Amino acid sequence: MRIVIVGGGSAGWMTAAALSRFLMPGADITLIESDEIGTVGVGEATIPAIRIFNDALGIDEAEFVAATGASFKLGIEFRDWGREGERYHHAFGLVGRSLGLLPFHHYWCRADALGLAKPLGHYVLNKVAAEANRFAHVTRAEGSALPPLPYAYHFDAGLYAAFLRRFAEARGVIRIEGKLQGAERQPETGDIAAVRFGDGRRVEGDLFIDCSGFRGFLIEGELGAGYDDWSHWLPCDRAIAVPSARIEPLVPYTRATARTAGWQWRIPLQHRTGNGHVFCSAFTSEDEAAALLLANLDGEQLAEPRTLRFTTGRRRRAFVGNVIAIGLSSGFIEPLESTSIHLIQTGVDRILDLLPGGPISDAVRDEYNRRFDFEMERLRDFIVLHYHANQREGLPFWDRVRTMPIPDSLARRIALFEDSGAILRDGDELFDVPGWSQVMIGQNVRPRRAHPIAAQLSEAQLGQFLGSLEHAYAVDAGRLPDHAAFLGNFAPMINNGARP
Question: Which of 15, 228, 242, 423 is the most exposed place for a label (fewest CB within 10 A)?
């Protein structure tokens, strides 16, 4: 099988790296990209699953961290998303400690109603360590009462793509430089037979992977897959990005701060800080959004801002004919929960799971698209929750997203939690009970009644349980080294950010 990847960036080179690692030696894999076409590069923050991807490729963590200017990430801090002045963390890992069948948040909700609880983050180890700027690789003894310390990374997306390019080319991937002008179709099936450059060159293939970004060169431009517009639920349609100087202290978490008509990200890397302002152009102008972003940088501005325009949503079909869309060409859900890189990763996983050994069947395409649809819809609901659960009254944008109709699937989930505190994971959706509970509780969504099992503890027992957890996690986090000091010993950046 001849596999042709159209487009580079994180999507193209993650795909090329994985295919070159897991297919037979000598597999025919070609990647086409043009230096004239820039990459979007918003995927600088990740979630813990990226470690599975890197580990599967056999990448040495220290080499990767040093090459990409990476720092470690324990979660995301949300500022002003509930009421102005409030903040909470969506931290990776466990929330508190379950007792028997019941997740911890049930006990916390009962204690909160009784006035016995501190904010939920006091009982989340990753949040306690993040706020203390502490990090280390933690290994627990079997049976330890202390939870693991899962983590992800902040990194330079351009340097990560370059790192994976070296990896893939060393394993036989052929890169062709040039700007594509069109495609040729197979007369019998309508599938793509070849892609064509303006100078007459052509590249034939059996399977084409579209990593061309928002424009969807093949999946939309040639095959007309269609697009489901979700901007009625996620109305932000612009992002302005700008780098600034490294911040001190170098914190091990991403920050998302609510602004007048959107939100601002801050992503700390070893050599600089990534910043951006995601906003809705119906409620503020690009000039106003840029001014607000620049006025709220925590360090010296290092370059001119650049603006990205997008429509949230997904392709109606991500696999059409012999073309699979990966990354932004398959759809876009804003980077509020750092899932852009993850969606590339899961797309690559699906390719490997369903890679045809011969002619591509409808069964393979249908299953790929079914799994893609499920993932995107569940992720959409989680992002919409952040907007819908705000209490920023009197601001037109926030009033609109708080009162807008929401997907039925999300409405059912919120109603269930408000009734009984229940959070039930739907299949293999990305975000589980800890994520949903931290966002809902962090934005003041509370159940009306406690679970009856949680009521079996007396008030004294409940207070003792929470107090012991808080103390244990504070002591454990206090043993960890400073995040920046750990990075300096483990994998300080090479080349000071210069691209190879």
Answer: 228
